[in-house]
User: What shape does this take?
Amino acid sequence: MSGSTSPRRDGATDDTAAKAMRCGQIAVVGRPNVGKSTLLNRLVGEKVSITSRKAQTTRLPLRGILTTASAQFVFVDTPGFQTRHGGEMNRRLNLSVRRTLESVDVVLWVWDATRLTVADRAVLDLIPASVPVIAVPNKVDLVRDRAALMASVSELSAVRAFAAVVPVSASRGTQSEALLREIETLLPEGEPMFAADDLTDKPERFLAAEIIREKIFRLTGDELPYRVAVMIDKYEQEGNLRRIFAAILVDKASQRPILVGAGGEVLKRIGTEARLDMQRLFGGPVYLELFVKVKSGWSENAAVLRDLGIT
Ligand SMILES: Nc1nc2c(ncn2[C@@H]2O[C@H](COP(=O)(O)OP(=O)(O)OP(=O)(O)O)[C@@H](O)[C@H]2O)c(=O)[nH]1
Ligand SMILES: [Mg+2]
Assistant: This one.
């Protein structure tokens, strides 16, 4: 086995087949950093998508799956829609958001409840009129001025007919049940697309690379994470033990020492924290080796982007 299977939910039973189920895809969209991936993880109940306080953490659409007795929710996390920065990678990321919007049953349009911006409205404008939209102001735990939030909600409701407006705190879990109930009413009836215990559509080796990237986002400076990509060189499983060899691509030789840190401290910490997360998600011991490779201009290089799945 080479990391091609996906992690599964513990103890799930497959007793859902006999009932009339609802099943559909729900896109989670919004500008960078509003908490889309945190919300997806909260709704799925497991951390399948990586998150950080830096904008543009998510690069690839990832599905997170929740199956209940009455419905299968297939959430599609998307990269933050970028209106400010150009470049080949951002162009591709925006395109992938547009493509996702064309193929889903429901859209969760997420914004930071403390500030509604022009960039948020630009994302709302991208959503086809035919798809039901639930407006989801997130981070309500940070809202001091409730009246201002209510005012933006009513102003927005005049522009677009929302199927519902559900303010949430993704990090605290506030209102996530209410949000699931609203989504369920909008899902079409249909057979589940995934097994009841599937957590995600992505194989383990993809999630392993993403977990490493999350630690780089969290543990290195403001610039470096955007200049870095992760590729899994080798993924072996022997019994319950996974052996993972991953290359971290950087743009320039001068970035290598920043990533490695004095005495190798930073890279060591990235490795340790990534390994612990992988062990938790995969449910078994992990041996992880990280290498740094200099590959100049990778983010403008179509072949490398394709290898990374950014198409
Ligand atoms: N206070 C507060 N912080 C939150 C909440 N939800 C998310 N965050 C934080 O917001 C930051 C961004 O969260 P992400 O889930 O990575 O945001 P995202 O929209 O997926 O970002 P991109 O993938 O970069 O577009 C992280 O630091 C989260 O911890 C919330 O409800 N309250
Ligand atoms: Mg994200």
Summary: The pocket of magnesium ion (ligand 2) is lined by residues 36-37, 57-58, 77 (CB under 6 Å). The first strand starts at residue 22 and ends at 29.
